[in-house]
Task: structure prediction
Amino acid sequence: MDFTLTEDQKMLKTMLRDFAVKELEPIAAQIDQTAEYPAEAVKKIADLGLMGLTIPEEYGGSGKGKVDFCIAVEELSRVSAAAASYFRISLSLGIVPVILFGNEEQKQKYLPPHATGEKMACFGLTEAGAGSDPASMETTATRRNGGYVINGTKQFISIGAEAGTVVVFTTVDKSLRHKGVTAFVLDKNTPGLSVGKHEDKMGFRGLSATELVFTDCFVKEENRLGEEGQGFKIALETLNVSRVTVGAEAVGIAQGAFDAALSYAKERRQFGQPIADFQAIQWMLADMATQIEASRLLTLYAAYLLDTGQPFIKEAAMAKVFASEASSFVTNKAIQIHGGYGYTKDYPLERYLRDAKLTEIYEGTSEMQRMTIARHLIREG
Result:
C-alpha cells in the first residue's frame, strides 16, 4: 500500500502550513481568550477555496476527497483548532447530508453558496436528553398545510450562531423512536427559528456552541431531506463520514503540541544541558511522536477507504477514538515537558490540552466509538 501523498496533496499541505503560521498563529491565543467568532480568519480560509474542498465541481466546489480534507484539517488545527473547526464542521457535518441525501433542487440551492464560503451549515441533532441516543429526541415535526411545523430545542450546536443553513433532525412520531426521525434543511432566517443560549466552554472557545430554538417553525415539504423516517440513517451516515475528520483534527492538535514541546526541550537547559538530553524527556517525546504517527495513519487509512468506496465505518471509529485519546495524552505530556511554563497562558500548551478533550466527546464519544468497533468485530468474526 502506498502512503505517499500526491504532488497536489503535498502542495496543499505546504500551502496550508504556511497559511496557518502566518495568518492563524498570531491570533490563535486571542481567539481562545475572547471566545468570539474569528470572522476574519474564517473569511481567509474561505478565500483559499477550502469551504468547497469536497463539494462536487458541478455545484462550485473542488470535488476533492476525504484524504485532502484530512490534510487540510490537520494543518489548520495544528495552530488553531477553533478557527479550523468552522471549515471542518460546515463541510463535514453541516452540508454532507445535502450532498448525500439532497435532491437536485436542494443541491442547486444550498451547495453553491457553501462552496464559496458565502454561507456555512450546521448540524442540529443533539438535545438535552438526546446525545448518544438521538432516537430519544423531543423536537417534533407535525404535518400542516403542505409542510411541517417544527417545535423543540437543539443543544450544543457547533457554529449554530453563524451558520446560514441548518440541517435539523426531528421526530414525526415519538413512539416510533428511530423510525420516526426525519431531517430537514432550511435557511437560518426561517421564521420561528432562533438562537438560544451560547455555551461557555472549556476548550474550542472560539467555536460557537448554541441552542437552536424552534417555535412553531413552518417549513415546506420541499425542505425535507429524504423521506419521513429516513432521518436516523441520514444522521448516522453523516456522522460516520465526519468522524474521520475529527481524527484529523485531533492529530493536528497533538502535532502542534508536540512541535512546541520538542522545540522547548532543545532550548530549555537544566543541570548544564538541554532537557532533551535526559532520557525521561526523550521517552516522552518518543511516545508522543509514535502516537501521533499511528493516529495519522489510522485517520488517512479511514479517509482512503471512504474515498475508494470501501467499508470504512469500523476504521473511522478506530481513527476517531485512538486519535482523540492520543491527542489528550500528547498535549498532557507537552505540558509536563514545559513544566511550570506549560501551565501558564503565556504558552499555547494549556489551550491544546483543553481543545484536545473535546475531540473525545463530540460527534460520538469514545465509548460510542468502542461500541461501533466491537459490533463490527463481532459481526465480521
